[in-house]
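Now for today's protein:

——
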Amino acid sequence: MDLIPHRIAGIPCLIRVNTYVRVKPWRGSPSSCPSSDDYYGYTECEWELCDRKGYRARWLDKKLTRYERDLVEEAIHINYREEREEP
């Protein structure tokens, strides 16, 4: 479980990442791939918003717009991409 600093509607908060799974695209022929999802690859992510102390902040969920939700997911993907790139 990771905590990523973020802001929702200008309010400082933390994103608690409960699960993050990234399946890379299949390397090989489409006919040998187990499923179409595996062929193109996918990412599954479960997260929740917390206050700056790390406590669940359900009231922040009400401030989430589709745009804000996309920003949260982008921040999570960037965080995990940077973790993988470190030596």
In short: The chain has a mean pLDDT of 88. Residues 6 and 13 are 5 Å apart (CA to CA).
